[in-house]
Amino acid sequence: MYQVNVLEAKTNFSKLLAMLERREESEVIICRNGTPVAKITPYERDRSKAFGIAKGTFTVPDDFDDMMADEIAELFGMNGNHYDDLLDDIFTGREEH
């Protein structure tokens, strides 16, 4: 715990934040006339929302990449054959014909 008065907190706010980020202190108490009025603590991320939290809760269909391919091609003004050729070019590294 690190204790500062209001003037010191205003003057050294960035330094106080850096001290918390480096975990040099667990909290900073800001006092007015010697009486604590605020506490600054490091922000703790909610780890429950981490990437991959839903792993194993559903299955991606094998045809996921092909689902609605014709509808998507139509939205971009392509017919099915041109769309398939374009995908082949992308995945094989060939230039567009």
Given helix and strand content, the structural type is alpha+beta
Radius of gyration, Cα only, in angstroms? 28 Å
For the terminal residues, how far apart are their CA atoms?
68 Å
Question: What would the principal axes of the Cα set say about the shape?
Answer: elongated
Number of helices: 4
Uncertain segments: none
Largest sheet: 3 strands, mixed
Strand content: 15-25%
- Order of strands, main sheet, comes to 1-2-3
pLDDT average, as an integer?
Answer: 84
Element-level helix/strand string: EHHEEHH
Helices and strands in order:
Elements: E1 2-5, H1 6-11, H2 13-21, E2 28-32, E3 35-40, H3 69-75, H4 80-92
Give short descriptive properties of this protein.
3 strands; 4 helices; single chain; 97 residues; alpha+beta; three-stranded mixed β-sheet; elongated
Fold and architecture overview:
The structure is a single chain. This protein is α+β, with helices and mostly antiparallel strands. The protein has 4 helices and 3 strands. The chain has helices at 6-11, 13-21, 69-75, 80-92; strands spanning 2-5, 28-32, 35-40. It has a 3-stranded mixed β-sheet. The chain starts with a strand and ends in a 5-residue tail after the last helix. The model has no long low-confidence stretch (mean pLDDT 84).
